[in-house]
Amino acid sequence: MSLEQDDQVIRLLDNKSIKKHKKDYNFIHFASDSVHELAFLQCLSGHSQPSHPISAVLYTPDNSSYSSVLESYIRNLRFNTPATPKLCLIITATHESHKQAAVICSKKHGLEIKIQSGDHDYEGMSYVSDAPFVILDMFNLRSISVDIEDESAWVQAGATIGEIYYRIAEKSKTHVFPSGTFVTVGAGGHFSGGRKEKMKQVDLQ
Ligand SMILES: Cc1cc2nc3c(=O)[nH]c(=O)nc-3n(C[C@H](O)[C@H](O)[C@H](O)COP(=O)(O)OP(=O)(O)OC[C@H]3O[C@@H](n4cnc5c(N)ncnc54)[C@H](O)[C@@H]3O)c2cc1C
Fold it and tell me: What region holds the FAD-binding PCMH-type domain (predicted)?
């Protein structure tokens, strides 16, 4: 479904259809009107693969487990107060198309994206904002493929640096990846610049 088709579908929806979609998606309340909210959800659905429905990995305030899931993202309890602006939606991506849909649709609908990989953020960068935002959780995307011949590795953002060390050690006793000492730090936040230590080498040595 294209963006234009998304818009077309929205225009054709009557009140009954909107009610049904609200139920299907555990409707959320972040936009100025319900048609805009529904358009965002339809956009997400239209840009993810039908074989991996994104509705199965969405958490909204209407989910019974929403509060506990949200609190698990707030690593620094200083930000877990009633005064802290809250997000509108959590996407726990399990497929590449979920990330793509999150980026395309958030941009289209003017929402910020906060990405979490290893959940080591104590500064609130990935779970606090004054503007409406979605959390894109990369935790489930954590595959690691090490090619010792080529001395390289492909790592998904949700993998921890400890898992990377482990997979390299499985293949070689002489190669290492210099990252950090805290093995639960995520590759996503670490590689994108959050690390404390200057990474001396980016390829396996
Ligand atoms: C207890 C603790 C121990 C640490 N130990 C070490 C250490 O030993 N060595 C070291 O070098 N550093 C260390 N750090 C710093 C750590 O590398 C950074 O905090 C890093 O950003 C954590 O990444 P994360 O994926 O675990 O965290 P997250 O909470 O997932 O993300 C941290 C930041 O990176 C952004 N981000 C996450 N994933 C992505 C992505 N895929 N694309 C773009 N942006 C993304 C988030 O939005 C957020 O701003 C430590 C931090 C803590 C709190």
Answer: 81-205
